[in-house]
Structures are given as C-alpha cells and as structure tokens.
Give the backbone structure.
Amino acid sequence: MMRRLLMALFLVMAPGLGATSERQVLLVANADSAGTSLTRDTTRALFAMRQRTWPDGQAARVFVLPNDHPVHARFAKERLNVYPHQLQLAWDRLVFSGTGQAPGRVDTQAEMLERIATTPGALGYLEREYLDDRVQVINME
C-alpha cells in the first residue's frame, strides 16, 4: 500500500521535474564571440555591469529581460545565485552615480535572441527552445 502511494506521488511530481530540465535557462552569446566558457564570478560581474569586456578584451553588451519576467528570475537565482532585485540595485547604483549604465532591456526571449544574434559581443540568456545557430551556449565553470 505504501509503495503504491509513493509511486503515485512520484508520478504526480515527475512531469514537473522533467519540465524543469527542459526549460533550463542557458547563458548565450553572439556566435562570433571568442569564448565558450565563463566562470560564475566573471558572469556575475558582467551581468552586474562591473566588468564591461569579455576575458579576451572584446566589449561586452549585456541584455536582460524585465525584472518581473520568470526567465529573468530563474537565470538570476539559478545561474548567478542572486535575486533579481539585487541586480537592479547594482544597476541603479551605477546609473545614479554616473559611473556606468544598466544592461540593455528586451521584452521577450524572441527579442533577446535577435539582439544577441545581431550585436557583436552580446551576452544574455534563453531557454533551450529559443536557441538557433546564430548564438552559442556559454558554459559556466
């Protein structure tokens, strides 16, 4: 009886588990970018706008979705280990102090794909289903 109950519970929860891995948010860059991997610290510095170049010296152009977009929240929490409001605070500090600027904002993942694909040095994030050969997945070490 207990075994059936546990199996039923697993089957109810299993679809959600599979959807999570399929809907993983990936770090992506313009296909012409030189690097194929970044450390978590470098990635965090790029998205916090503290670092403005790729490790090879190429200018980095960072794009993000709106703070309330679920993909933005997942990327910030799962990949950068920060909350979206922490990123926003960092960007606000740069903008209001006059020492930097916020990343480029896009409204949808389709727009994110287009901007990354057409902007040299671009960096952003997408769910796997939005990827095509105009962008490359960047591994996080």
User: Anything to note?
Assistant: The CA atoms of residues 7 and 112 lie 40 Å apart.
